[in-house]
Amino acid sequence: MSQFSGRTALVTGAASGIGRAIALDLAERGARLVLADLNRLAVERLAADLNSASADAALAVEVDVASSLSVDAMVRAGLDRFETLDILIHSAGVGLERRFLETSDEDWDRLIRIDLTGTFYCNRSAGRVMKDRGYGRIVNIASTAGVAGGTGRAAYGAAKGGVIMLTRVLAVELAEYGVTVNALAPGAIETDLVARMHSAETRRVYRAAIPVDRYGSPEEVAAAARFLASEEASYINGHILAVDGGFLAAGVLHKRTS
Question: Is residue 2's pLDDT more than 90?
Answer without folding.
Answer: no
